[in-house]
Amino acid sequence: MDVPISTAGLDLSLNKEEGPIKYFSWPQHDALQSFLPTLHPYLPYSNPLYNRMKAPHNLPSRHCLFAATFSPGTTTIPKIFTILFADRSRHEESQIWTFNSLNSTTKPLTASQQESLTMHMNAAVRFLKESSIPEAPGWPFSPILKFACLHEHLTSTLVAIGNPSNAVPRQSHWNCWLVNTSTISPASEKALSEGYTITRVPDDQLDIVISTSSIPRQPSTYKLLPSVGVLDPNDKLIAWGYVGIDGSFATLYVLPDFRGRGISSIIGRELLSRLNNGDFSDMGYDGKSGWVHSDVYDGNAGSEAVMRGLGGFIAWKSSYVWIDSARL
């Protein structure tokens, strides 16, 4: 399904003089000043990278990489470009988000477009492999490049690059759902049983959140993520939802004894409406992209029902791919 986007000024024809692709590192401040307005017309396709680059976790001390196939000071953005962000110091978590202007459609690429995308991704792997960041926590990094929330065109391209060298140690595939947050109305605590309350997830109850999640995240990461939790009359956490570091609806969980009461829908509505209203601006999440995405396994009926209830729809196939750069 192709998602309607503003196509004013967008031209997906190839750059006439496109030659060898090179990535340029950008200072964080300059990157945000240039990359965000460049990505904005491509929303919601660019949503994962757009929001990940804005995340408050990108502290200078982490020495994140902001890079593009055009150099700092460029005033005319190429028709076909790639922007990437990497925080390689997140060793156990996803690290790399990237967007190419050819990813604003799920239609098959032409042969020339595919050739261009392959050149961009080959160069991206080389750039990440050769980027030395000795000041970053945990340097030297593993050669495994952990790409997150890849559009299906990027997935097939990276896998085609890595498979001949047996350099794809892991990949997972999800349906990427999109929700327009401006259409979400807040939940009502009246829908909960008496004595139950909605609040942000208390930091001192993160142990149960971490123990029930299959996605590795550090406690410090959770503490900086927008969240909504439901507390029982004893102030014990019985359900929760999180907006991820890339602005995704990343976590939704209801303890087994409390399922079947509509609590998941309440959490979803409350979390996304608060995000849209700027209630998490104090944490660095302004919700101004107007979209959230969510990766859901095909056939996960419960999560699919929640997403449909929020007005969501499947937009493209999303993948998480590891590339062993040492083999390339």
From TrEMBL:
One of its GO terms (molecular function) is acyltransferase activity, transferring groups other than amino-acyl groups. Residues 182-328 form the N-acetyltransferase domain. It comes from Mollisia scopiformis (Conifer needle endophyte fungus). This is N-acetyltransferase domain-containing protein. Signal peptide: none annotated. It comes from the Eukaryota. InterPro entries: Acyl-CoA_N-acyltransferase, Acyl_CoA_acyltransferase, GNAT_dom. PANTHER family: GLYCINE N-ACYLTRANSFERASE-LIKE PROTEIN.
